[in-house]
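Q: How do we represent a protein-ligand complex in a form that can be generated token by token?
A: Start from the inputs.
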Amino acid sequence: MANDKKTIKQIATGDRTIPPEGAKMIPVYIMGREYMVPETLTIMKAVEYAGYRYIRGCGCRGGICGACATFYRFIGDYKLRTGLACQTVVAPDMVIAQLPFFPANRPDYNLEDVKGDLHEELRRLYPEVFKCIGCGTCTRTCPMDIDVMDYIALMKRGDLKGAAHKSFDCVMCGLCASRCPAQISQFTAAMFVRRLVGKYVFPKAEHLKKRVEEVKSSKYLKMLKEVTSMKTEEVKKLYVEREREPDMAEQGAWLPKDKDHL
Ligand code: SF4
Ligand code: SF4
Ligand code: FES
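Then emit the structure tokens for the protein with FE2/S2 (inorganic) cluster bound:
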């Protein structure tokens, strides 16, 4: 890696980002190479500015999908930091490595087969959860500011509802698991718990049940056929001209004028 400032390479340019007028150029290190990038960019845009093209490790670009988990460290600083590439702004002397995928524990299960004690099922599928040593590394690592250690503690105690609630904002980036000394896959265990709670603990949503029954009874097949037989331009027009619920409408109060399709 070139970390001598005198060896800074010529500026690389990608075609995705136009540097904001007057932005200061700063050195960052991507895949071990030094690049000068505008200081206003996120890591993701800086990577593209440097000439790389994402074919994975990039999804929503909005901090939601968790595809862009990233490690970085500053030259001369021992601390390993983490963030989402689409949300973290570059800083001088940042040494960046993106985590394209983390091999988490993903046991095979079918929620329909879960019978009996849900906590025991968690223990059977994710025994490592019960080996947490309470170091807090996962909580310090999480880019969503989730108290990961706490939801693991709730899982251990059998408070699955609490764990589901506490882990709800997880974007499945895998960073917590990548740093856990007990080798726990917190995020996949939490997903399992949320599924269990959704299926067996929370009351069934009546409106959802009704809609599923309507779908199963082929109520929407005719409409679907109408739309799929339209030309692309007609579908676009229909989409643009559709009736839309106002942003501030009272929950459940708004209905479209045309109720034929409800
Ligand atoms: S809990 Fe883990 S997987 Fe979920 S957002 Fe936080 S670090 Fe990422
Ligand atoms: S990093 Fe692992 S061992 Fe440490 S608190 Fe989190 S889950 Fe527990
Ligand atoms: S690209 Fe989706 S969270 Fe960054």
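Residues 103 and 174 are 9 Å apart (CA to CA). Confidence is low (pLDDT under 50) at residues 1-15.
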